[in-house]
Amino acid sequence: MDSRQDQTKSFTSLSQSPLWKINTDYYQSTGLEAWRSGAVPHQISSNSRIAKTIAELILGYLKDISRKSDTNEIVYIVELGAGHGRLAYHILKHLDRLIALTNIVVPKYCYVLTDIIEESLQYFLDHSQLEDYFKSGKLDVSYFDVVKSDELYLRYTKQKITKGSLYQSTIVVANYLFDSIPTDLFQVEGNTLLACHVDFDHSVDRMNLTYHKEVVGGPVYPEVMYNDILEDYRKQLDNSHFYFPNIALDCLSRVQQLSSNGLMLISCDKGFHELHDLQNMGEPDVVCHGSFSLMVNFNAMANFCKLSGGVAYLPAYATNALQCVCLLFENDHGNFEEVNNAYERFVNDFGPDDYITLKKMSYDKIASLSTEELVAMIRLSNYDSTIFQNYLPRLKQLSAHLSMSDRRRLSQVMHRVWDMYFTINEPYDLPFELGGFYFDLSFHEEAKFYFQQSLKLFGPKPDSYYNLALCHYQLREDKQLLNLIENAKKTFPDYDRFVELDKLNLSAN
Question: Collapsing DSSP states into helix, strand and coil, what is residue 221?
Fold first, then answer.
């Protein structure tokens, strides 16, 4: 809609539009339930495979820093919009293993989970799987609003980080964040740059935007580099709309100012990083999934990094939707060889986008896949629990015909899946499912362990008690069996299947 249409509407720049309150209100009201329920997709950006890629880039950065500075100073890894915390757990698990395998002494690090949702911050502090990381100094939490915050208050160590208070460079992780925070919208038509102001109507699954476009006659932003990037777009694009990530760039600048040195951003998100992808883009549609999200203009963010004296690592090969970018805001970026090598190996050689393509293919062909093929995909996923969960029905179909050596290999894989698992109290009880599958494979000791884990994480359930009793029976643990049956009947007196346990012939053991 041009400037002559519907002048009664309340038009503002896109980044200042009240429509962003929809996202804030949604996450404030739903909290962790947004991810537990599956209403907001998160597996694509928070799986073990993508966490391994990020951990490799972080390790490269730590190695490069170790060659040029004091390794006693802590490097802070700040995850923006951490949400459910699963990505952080995966990254920390991979970092533990990777650092144990290297012979280079790297700086100490502290991973900081940030969010604006108080429920999430308290959930992290209370989470049993994160307890050891807090105690070791490798993890902390802080409130941080990407739109306006300029300091961190670490709630576990009670430490405040303010402008210039850090000596070491900072690492920022931002997965599926920049697509959900305010951004501006422009159009290039001919050689003219137009600012697209918006008004909106919100339905259940779609945002209907109305546009009012004004010719840009001078600088749009106080930041010279922002205006320089816009001027380049005016010269290079034609008949195209594009988002300009001004709020994301503001946020990076504020985080960078916490340290007297540089910053590395690692971000995986849907978006574009090549200029030709911005050509001939029409007025955008906005799809809602409780909240809403937009495509990220990584090209503008990369240009900002370069103008700041840094280097931008962008996928060298054509990607589908997921972009994995690494922006290195270091004036001596030529000395960061380990980061360069890590990006080449773990993004350009075979990256998260390639893995997602293979994962989708495996889901489409799952009915024809063998156990060996499924195990290979689980290993390729770096033992991601969600992909295992989706493969489990097929694995059960195949299990009756497995040799003992194949069962042992599958058992090893399942233990690794459990090691990478992080609960956000979703309905799916992974340890219960693992226990049942181990029992079917005749690994009764392992089955007992996982049924016990199910009771710890998901609370008492009659089926868990019943199956655990069968494990005790198979293992000839008569005393434990009798005690369990007694406690189970007290806890669930109306559960009919406990009668079957009374019929077990203990003398046969």
Answer: coil
What does DSSP assign to residue 178?
A: G
Q: What is the pLDDT of residues 317-372, one digit of tens each?
A: 867 778 999 999 998 898 999 999 999 999 999 999 999 999 999 999 999 999 99
Q: Give the pLDDT band (50/70/90) at residue 38.
A: low
- Reference 121, options 32, 40, 30; nearest CA is 32
Find out whether 288 and 305 touch, Cβ atoms under 8 Å: no
| Structure confidence by residue, pLDDT tens digits, 423-447 | 988 889 999 999 999 999 999 999 9
Q: Which of 84, 153, 92, 144 is nearest to 114 (CA)?
A: 144
Domain extent for 368: 357-508
**Hey, how many other C-beta atoms are within 10 angstroms of the C-beta on 464?**
23
pLDDT tens-digit profile of 149-176? Answer: 999 999 999 999 999 999 999 999 999 9
**Helix (H, G, I), strand (E, B), or coil: what is residue 381?**
coil
Q: How far is CA 506 from the centre of its chain?
A: 49
Reported as a pLDDT band with limits 50, 70 and 90, residue 8 is very low
339 with 262, same domain: the answer is: yes
Which of 332, 349, 366 is the C-terminal boundary of a domain?
A: 349
Of the candidates 343, 310, 313, the residue with the CA atom closest to the CA atom of residue 329:
310
Residue 454 and residue 325 share a domain = no
Question: Distance between CA atoms of 194 and 238, rounded to whole angstroms?
Answer: 11
Do 363 and 328 fall within a single domain?
no
Q: Measure the CA–CA gap between 151 and 165, rounded to whole angstroms.
A: 10
Secondary structure (3-state) at 128 = helix
User: Domain tally for the chain?
Assistant: 2
CATH value at residue 377? 1.25.40.10
**pTM, full prediction:** 0.93
d(CA 473, CA 15): 63
| Token pair belonging to 124 | 């992290």
HSE, side-chain direction, 13 A CA sphere, residue 188: 20
CB atoms within 10 A of CB 120: 24
Tokens encoding 34: 């947004």
Burial of 246 (0-12, 13-18, 19+ CB in 10 A): buried
Listed in order, strand segments (DSSP E) in 290-332 are 291-292, 296-297, 311-313, 322-329
| SS3 category, 1 | coil
Give the least confident one: 26-40, 114-128, 274-288. Answer: 26-40
DSSP SS3 for 195: strand
Question: Rounded CA gap, 324 and 187, in Å?
Answer: 26
Residues 301 and 258: their CA atoms lie apart, in Å, by: 20
